[in-house]
Amino acid sequence: ILLLPLVGVIESRRALQVMESLLDSIGRTSAQVVIIDITGVPVVDTGVASYLIRAIQAAQLLGCNSILVGISPEIAQTLVGVGIDFSRIQTRATLQNGLQDALRQLNYSIRLV
User: Fold this and answer.
1) Which CATH class is domain 2-105?
2) Domain residue ranges in the chain
């Protein structure tokens, strides 16, 4: 499981760098799930939304499922407003929910000993 926390303002150049780094990490680690956490991103414009979706699609081509977490109400409005189809994109409200889902996908669980 890879975790990609995004923090701060993300312009198109940074979004492209993040996407390239993510795909490189997936290739190096053979990760099966990546959690993309946008809790720390105050604003997502249409360009950044496009890069996020392309990164998720590219990860899928590499055999890695993506879970997008931490979507604020404002960002949700932007993403819906640009017409992004979320029917094939896994989203969870929080990082905790995303991690639980990722563990479930891999048939792992956390147990207290």
Assistant:
1) alpha beta
2) 2-105
Is-contact 69 31, C-beta < 8 A?
no
Mind spelling out the 3-state secondary structure of the chain? CEEEEEECCCCHHHHHHHHHHHHHHHHHHCCCEEEEEEEECCCCCHHHHHHHHHHHHHHHHCCCEEEEECCCHHHHHHHHHCCCCCCCCEEECCHHHHHHHHHHHCCCCCCCC
Q: What is the pTM of this model?
A: 0.90
Residue with tokens 């048939």: 107
pLDDT tens column, 10-61: 888 888 899 999 999 999 999 999 999 999 998 888 888 888 889 999 999 9
- Tell me the average pLDDT across 69-73: 92
Burial class (CB in 10 A: 0-12, 13-18, 19+), 102: buried
